[in-house]
């Protein structure tokens, strides 16, 4: 595998360049990375910063959301490689029950802080609608995060 895809360290070091390339070639798509050392001064070089979270919704999905059913489905899967975490996806729905991707995130774990950050990013970058229905597996962190959101 390493011969084809590179090792974990190479892939991790490539992440900032991958984000930059996706920003350049997907105009209007938002990439919101967070690093563990953001409060540390002096700043650590970007290729040495410990990754914490990443949120990205694609521009066409953002633009299309106001014309869809006001439902967001949230699900995640555990990342079980050397670098642990959770890959989240928020999906929207058409009236004909078709599902489309709305936003993605990589978070450090399933907890109220991570889910709260994810939902705030959706509020900030995707929709400010307050009359949304959220479908999830009812994880305690999701429930607490939603209850803690600013309704405005």
Q: How is this fold's topology laid out?
A:
Layout: H1 2-5, H2 8-25, E1 32-35, E2 51-56, H3 59-64, E3 69-80, E4 84-93, E5 99-107, H4 112-125, E6 133-135, H5 140-147
Parallel strand pairs: 3-6
Antiparallel strand pairs: 1-2, 2-5, 3-4, 4-5
Share of helical residues: 25-40%
Q: End-to-end span in angstroms?
A: 48 Å
**Count the helices. How many?**
5
Structural class of the secondary structure composition? alpha+beta
Global shape: globular
| Total count of domains | 1
The main β sheet shows up as: 6 strands, mixed
* Cα gyration radius (Å): 16 Å
Low-confidence stretches: none
Mean pLDDT: 86
Q: What's the total number of strands?
A: 6
The SSE order reads HHEEHEEEHEH
Major sheet: order of its strands?
A: 1-2-5-4-3-6
Beta-strand level of the residues, as a percent range? 25-35%
Protein name: MULE transposase domain-containing protein
Domain MULE transposase: 71-146
Pfam families: MULE
